[in-house]
């Protein structure tokens, strides 16, 4: 819980540590009431610190200190002092061994940070500052130490005892306990420490590295989950091979372990050689897991594995540099997933997340650059900005340098900084040094928050046979940053002529062309306003802009409907094709809003419908692309477009439009549905995933018609599917319809799957996201369901998180009951799990976007939370910043 005055920490105050810890020896005695931790720290003054005689200041929180000794001499109480999270020993030698004994209570640790218990097993989560809940330490990433860890525990209850690195000793003790000793040869910061003790079974495999070393791979799970590890294991091996082939990175130990735990605050954690995973990100089998679930497992397994180099071998100097490891690693895992599946689909999924969640964060009270300047609670900065926008920044470097120079840059980065804790600046310097590309102005992406807007117009000069793109950039003010310097924006373009893409030649420049056929180019937008003239253009082209979403910006070009239809039908860039469909959909929604407001029927444009009809009927197109193009822009995306956001009006207009589309295209939808049905055995490959996603998109449209034949389709699919993707899609369609069968479907689903917590979470989520009136009451009822447990973050996310974050029309009920519900849950969770509480709060922080009545009700909830005694620093930071006045425009 927070101090009286929660303090802000500034990047500009960074100082090197006054002391270093060369080796860390830890001994754990795990018990049922409490556990004992004994540490032997080999400490010496940091020669780089220049702080002669400085006191030793260690971090520690919620610890019971039993004894403290230096070089074997026990310290008296007057030799140390404690205040807040700090233990201060005023007088210490140049170099010494500190022995410290603490008692901790993992059983009572509900924050899931530090050492805690989950389903009877002990496990740890130390990033960012959880190690200080285990013992007193210099808990900062620039203090790197070689760890030896001894674990003693009851042999019956905890047959498996794991930590980082290599197993160096095991011993059976006479009193029913046993002991293992682990040693990790690679120096690491405390945030990468991990310990696991429990009754676990494992699936084993091995991987031969590029230099012929065999690595033992193990995934530890509860016995009942042994049949759900194959996909994670295959993903791990694919990731290991991919990192060798694409980045030249080889794994560096003989053993790599993954452990699955039920209670986990996020997806997974990259502890050196002992990754700890949320069960939701490792377990998968077709009967219980959706396609999205399979893809998430693949992506997260790869992400954590890739951290072994981008994060562990080269780590962060301080937590302001978090994007150094997270942005880079997300970029790496998204490229990996693209290579394993469909690159365009992956890109569209990533862009969708960015344009909804990240753009919203960038436009809200918590907006921060990918390298923040300050924070109160670092846990609040594991954000879509640091992760996903951070990955976009690395992607832009990749685009500006090209793949070969980028690879040279990453090689140089790893070579220069192996074993070090470094900064984002070090990464950029390596990229510059290896490529010769000047990234001075590009650095603004690291220091400035907010989503830049690019306004582009085109001028065709028939006489000169030239086409000019006029580009101007701006970036809205964000808290603490009222004006922004121009960004260096890579703008990838092509010009479409009647017969295809036109060759590009910039006026006054010798060939500066990226693609082999000269028809695609990256423009370096660096000024506030800038023009680019292409010569030799003998027809009025349609510009294809921001291809592949080459920069995380909002692009504005005044396309006609005909131009958008052309891009949607035939652009060779998959992202631009999809984006054109979204712009057309947006125009339809705007008209539908006006129609509904005027009390008229919603009638989609005939050309738009014709394009959708063609998409549905063209069996040669990638089904996943078709599915994504047929889906109208989401309500979350629309909330980024409209000011103010009238949630209910947008929802009703969008639903009316969906119904009109379903009515007009029902024959084609049915035909498409039937075409996509298949009885091939399930595989989580791109082709099958595409087919299922198109089929289920068609089903969702057909169910809007609410007729008997659609209900029969959904019912049959629900009852007969052998995979969870189809079964859940059918359940979702039924739950959102008036079909009387839905109650029975929900009941039988529960009956069948009650023994599978991850499946029941999907059951919670489907109900929490139901668009029909009454969802809040349903959710409130489910909070008392025996399968719900507010201490389990997955369940909280499935029920409370999904309702508040993804069920706009019910969360924003006009009576404010949705807001009040969230306020109540945040207040409860603030006491047990502050990280989850502050995550959950996000929908309320966006209050400024909505209509005045909603604003008032949302604000009142934030005020109510702020008035709570004992607010955690996590919740305090988010609530207080959300209520602060700031000038955004
Ligand atoms: N590095 C961890 C995230 C830790 C979050 C701590 N609050 C997972 C990841 O990004 O790989
Ligand atoms: Zn990560």
From TrEMBL:
Residues 450-557 form the Peptidase M1 alanyl aminopeptidase Ig-like fold domain. Its EC number is 3.4.11.2. NCBIfam families: pepN_proteo. Residues 562-884 form the Peptidase M1 alanyl aminopeptidase C-terminal domain. Belongs to the peptidase M1 family. It comes from the Bacteria. It comes from Zhongshania guokunii. Pfam families: DUF3458 (PF11940), DUF3458_C (PF17432), Peptidase_M1 (PF01433), Peptidase_M1_N (PF17900). Residues 232-444 form the Peptidase M1 membrane alanine aminopeptidase domain. Residues 78-192 form the Aminopeptidase N-like N-terminal domain. It catalyses: Release of an N-terminal amino acid, Xaa-|-Yaa- from a peptide, amide or arylamide. Xaa is preferably Ala, but may be most amino acids including Pro (slow action). When a terminal hydrophobic residue is followed by a prolyl residue, the two may be released as an intact Xaa-Pro dipeptide. This is Aminopeptidase N.
